[in-house]
Amino acid sequence: MTTVTHNEAREELAHKALRFLTAGSVDDGKSTLIGRLLFDSRAILADQLDALEKRAAGAPIDLSLLTDGLEAEREQGITIDVAYRYFATKTRKFIIADAPGHEQYTRNMVTAAAGSDAAVVLVDITKIDWKASPVPLLAQTRRHSLLAHLLRVPNIVFAINKLDAIEQDTETAFNNVKASLEAFAAQAGIDSKGVIPVSALRGDNVTTPSANWPWYKGPTLLQVLEELPPSDERHDGALLHPVQYVTRDSVGEGEASASGTGHQYRAFWGRIAHGAVKAGDEVQMFPSGQTAIVAEVRHSALVVDSCEAGQSAGIVLDRQVDVSRGDWIHTPGSIKPTDSFTATLAWLDTEPAVVGRKYWVRHGNRWVQARITSIDNRLDIHTLEDRDAGELAVNEIGRVQIQTQQPLPVEPYLDNRVGGALIVVDPTTNRTSGALLVKAA
Amino acid sequence: MTDVNQLLADVDHRHLDALEEEAIFILREVAASFERPGLLFSSGKDSCVVLHLAEKAFKMKNAEGKLEGKLPFPLVHVDTGHNFPEVIEFRERRVKEIGERLIVAHMEDSIKRGTVRLAHPLESRNGHQTVTLLEAIEDNRFDCLIGGARRDEEKARAKERIFSHRDSFGQWQPKEQRPELWNLFNTRIKPGEHFRAFPISNWTELDVWLYIARENIPLPNIYFKHPRQVMRRKGLLVPLTDVTPALEGETIETVDVRFRTVGDMTCTCPVESDAANPADIVAETLHVTVSERGATRMDDRTSEASMERRKKEGYF
């Protein structure tokens, strides 16, 4: 492979492993569901099964123990932190982020959601009054669906679990909860990719169709997952290239190279946010505003024809310009830097968000100081209504106004995850305190 | 022997390309974010893969196909003094070939200093590596160490972030992990603290072998089929060495084996195998029924939480 063409690269990215997270309340059976997926797809090896059988001491094995890997988790029987698991079927590779359900660990759920292409939200039917009309959903079901939706996890699938615990009227129970979930999804603007009745414990409709519920004619959970697309980067439009790392060539100076024009030349490496780049393109630097022509594009130790969104490109320019880590290389005139914008803030820190305090924020590869100038509202996860808010406490989500110490080329998160995402870091503790998703500049 | 070319023709390279892309991004992030990083290099297959990825991230191929340039960090090896001789030989040869700097932290020095005390001379030195590693971090003032750990290896590893924060005692605090959002890694540290960074977190054992086959990555020869004197003990093949002698009543046999992992001699066992090249190993791995650690490690079996406990103490 000496050159990478656009078409080949596009195909490459279309076949990435599907990354999905499981969400839902405590004891809804997330870990058991994952255990079931791994077990049924034969991703569990004999010695791992052995360990479970020993623990079970004759009783049926507890599949949830496959993922609860920390001592404290086993002690308390809950999932505290995200665990990543891997399995493959004949047609697809999967990476599961097993996220905790406890409200106090929402930050880890947010961590899992930020990198995922899909979310499986588990609903424990034994915890809700499915005979009521409409069926009231649990707060955590709403919270997790909304968080996944806010973080733009593109595909959300609902799995109604523990249906095996209901002796009669399973079909009615499923249909009632399904109607409630669909109404909630419609109200919240969530494009549901399916509602599936499952028993993680028994394995119904996880990887094989249930023989117990013949009334269900739909796909299994695995079938739905196998067909979901991984999120794709935008290869079209203007180039936006965050400069991550700069290398200075120690060899080749003055030799036959596009840029060997007597000065020591540099390559600006970074993962392209959107667009593509090839030799000969005119580009502009942010913040210096200087322009230059791309002399050479590099990728993984090679000079290539071009690179596009999602790939780490090394851009060599035809002249000396002022560029360092944190800067951006872009199509001339294509960005609108601003030092104040509106954003959704998911607060993850036990110390509440303080209006006016200086925080560090990271956008692309740049760290700048920033302050929250106002908290406009807070989302009520029960009613989905906006409430007035003076502050945001841990696990709350609200709309805020942000002011940064320097202008940044932010973009709405809905258009681009790279241009629209920032993290907020507490300058005293260095904790990652919040996730910012740009609404509008 | 399995034909490497045939195997590679059948593989979906897009998945490997995506994993490579992610790993290279992480390696550059380390080089850009930290002042004094280092790359842990044990000569094991995972660290050989990480070294290869680092070369791709920081070097350029010249017209002769040779990589030019220098890595922006040294290689670091915690040497327990109980390494397989083939591995040390490989380490020396490889480091010379690529022209990089190697820092070796010797456990013997920790023993001399008294910071490591062995309960008996043949005790497994694997757990004690933490002390020597933390001493090396302090001596060299490393602020980030790159490791080849994978989340599919073990349950505690599956929980760890790609950029894993360690406090001033080098400890991992599983309940206090920083959220890891998008690729916006929070690498801010206070003096005395450091990070561990894991570029191949998302790779599986099979991915590693496919990548070794595809990229033709050199490995110590004990990864491939060779005859070795072993004793059968508790379902494992214990290699006959100076530090792992035969116990009374045990029979010494010569068996065709290969190693799935390479670690301290006192706790690493080979598996029976005919696999003579990476493609053979891929074929074997597809049908394997025992996990990497289950098949090869004497010490991880002692307790379900042994890895987690060691990591909390500062193990990598």
Could you walk me through the main structural features you see in this protein, from its secondary elements to its overall organization?
The complex is a heterodimer of chains A (441) and B (316). With 441 residues, chain A is of the alpha+beta class. Chain A is built from nine helices and 23 strands. In chain A, the strands form four sheets. In chain A, strands 7, 8, 9, 11, 12, 13, 15 and 16 form an eight-stranded antiparallel sheet that branches. Chain A has a six-stranded mixed sheet with strand order 2-3-1-4-5-6, with helices on both faces. In chain A, strands 17-21-19-18-22-23 form a six-stranded antiparallel barrel. The two termini of chain A are 41 Å apart. Mean pLDDT of chain A is 84; it is low at 1-14 and 251-262. Chain B is α/β, with parallel strands linked by helices and 316 residues long. Helices cover 34% and strands 16% of the residues of chain B. Chain B is built from ten helices and twelve strands. Chain B has helices at 4-10, 13-33, 45-58, 85-98, 107-113, 129-140, 205-215, 278-286, 292-296, 306-312, and strands at residues 37-40, 60-61, 67-68, 75-79, 102-106, 144-146, 163-166, 194-197, 226-233, 236-239, 253-258, 271-272. In chain B, helix 2 (13-33) crosses helix 3 (45-58) and helix 7 runs antiparallel to helix 8 (278-286). The mean pLDDT of chain B is 88. Classes of the chains: A alpha+beta (441), B alpha/beta (316). At the A-B interface, helix 1, helix 3, helix 4, strand 2 and helix 5 of A face helix 2, helix 3, strand 2 and strand 3 of B.
